[in-house]
Amino acid sequence: MILVLTFLAGALGAVARFVADAELRRRVLPDGPWATVLINVSGSLVLGGLAAWAHRSASGESALAILGTGFCGGYTTFSTASYETMRLIEQRRYTVAVLSGAGGLVLAVAASLLGWAAIAAS
Amino acid sequence: MSTESARPPHLRATALALVLVGGFCGTAARDLVQNAFPHSASGVPWATFGINLAGAFVLGVLLEGLARSGEDDGRRRRIRLLAGTGFCGAFTTYSALATDTVQLWEVGHRTTAGIAYAAGTVLAGLVCTWLGLMVASRTARGGAR
């Protein structure tokens, strides 16, 4: 049961990413990799919190599987982030490539750490 | 093609359904691989590492191949949404990359390993994406001859 819910949550996460990406591009971030960066950072924040919850108590295990592995996993994406950085390199837009590639990683890890610390401290 | 663009609501529902199905399969595939190769909180998650690199390679092949075969509409757009946005998008994961790095620090007390894992994934991912783009462009050129 948890397995099916996990896959379904991942499917919904992918749809949420698709819609969020389109809306972000339409409204605020029309060009470049920033919509993907924002999606990955927000998903990392949530997964960090879920991981801390599961680390602390067994009740967090199912939540980590369904919302973490499922939703956050489907919502965030590595392949698109890598593709967008590679395209920037091809276009010789090296500053944006480094800012979004390295910066996106640092921000995502920082967000996850923030989520972890917030739940671990509560 | 013009009839499809005149019906945005239908297209929209189709697009959402394609991403949904692709996302379901991508998440299932990722979960299967991760469960087959489990890792401890203080260990490097090699399954996720391999998943992200494989997905980056496949997305590179897919998007370059589709771009070289014509406009992003009709069947090509449907394949991109199902296999690219849906499957590869959900198969690969950035939140696990970030959170496994935090776990290596917080639970495993392995700061250097965490940094090496995170930076190594991003750098190796770029190489895999580039390889994917190369494979697709060479195949396309070979087919055109």
TrEMBL record, chain A:
Keywords on record: Cell membrane, Ion channel, Ion transport, Membrane, Metal-binding, Sodium, Transmembrane, Transmembrane helix, Transport
TM segment ranges: 32-54, 96-119
GO biological process, one term: cellular detoxification of fluoride
Activation and inhibition: Na(+) is not transported, but it plays an essential structural role and its presence is essential for fluoride channel function.
Domain of life from the UniProt record: Bacteria
Keyword Transport applies: yes
GO cellular component: plasma membrane
GO terms of molecular function: fluoride channel activity; metal ion binding
Subcellular location: Cell membrane
Family: Belongs to the fluoride channel Fluc/FEX (TC 1.A.43) family.
Protein name listed in UniProt: Fluoride-specific ion channel FluC
